[in-house]
Amino acid sequence: xxxxxxxxxxxxxxxxxxxxxxxxxxxxxxxxxxxxxxxxxxxxxxxxxxxxxxxxxxxxxxxxxxxxxxxxxxxxxxxxxxxxxxxxxxxxxxxxxxxxxxxxxxxxxxxxxxxxxxxxxxxxxxxxxxxxxxxxxxxxxxxxxxxxxxxxxxxxxxxxxxxxxxxxxxxxxxxxxxxxxxxxx
Length: 185
Fold this sequence. Notes:
By secondary structure, the protein is α/β, with parallel strands linked by helices. Helix content is about 35%, strand content about 20%. It has helices at about 15-25, 55-60, 75-80, 85-95, 105-110, 155-170, 170-180, and strands spanning about 5-10, 30-35, 40-45, 50, 55, 65-70, 100, 120, 135, 140-145, 145-150. The chain has a 5-stranded parallel beta sheet. Helix 1 runs parallel beside helix 6 (about 155-170) and helix 6 packs antiparallel against helix 7 (about 170-180). The longest helix is centred in the N-terminal third of the chain and has 13 residues, at about 15-25. The two termini are about 25 Å apart.
C-alpha cells in the first residue's frame, strides 16, 4: 500500500488538505498527517483546529511515497521557514518520491528554497514571478518528473485525483471515483 505524508503547518489551507486526504483515503492510499509544529494540534488558515496523526519531528526519518504540501498564505510561509520541512522534502526528492505542493506551496516552499530544480510547476496568483528556480506553467495540475503541483483550491480535486492515479499506477480507480462523487475529471 502506498503511503503519503501531508505536512500541516500553522495557517495551512484546510480545504486543500482535507480534499486531498479524503480522495486519497477513499482510494485506499494510506495518509498520515504530520504537524510541522511542536504539538500535533495545528490551526488552519480559517482558524479550524486540527489534530495531526504525528509531528514531523516524530517522522523526520520516515520515507513516504509522496509528500503533500498544502498552501495557505501563512501555512506556506511557515512550511518554507521550517528547516525540518526542507530537510524532509529534500530527502524525499533525492529518493525520487513524489513532491506535491498545491497553491502557494510550490513557489514559497520549493521555489523559495531552491527545490524546484528547473522543473515545470504551477502555483497560485502571481507568486511565480518571484521564482527563478523553475518553469511556471499556467495549468490546473502540472507534472514534471517527481514533482506534481496544483494551482490552488479550485483545482484541489484535479490535484488529488491526478496524485491518486500516479500513486496507484492506473487512472481507472481515480476516474471511477471521480464519477462516483459527480466530479468531471
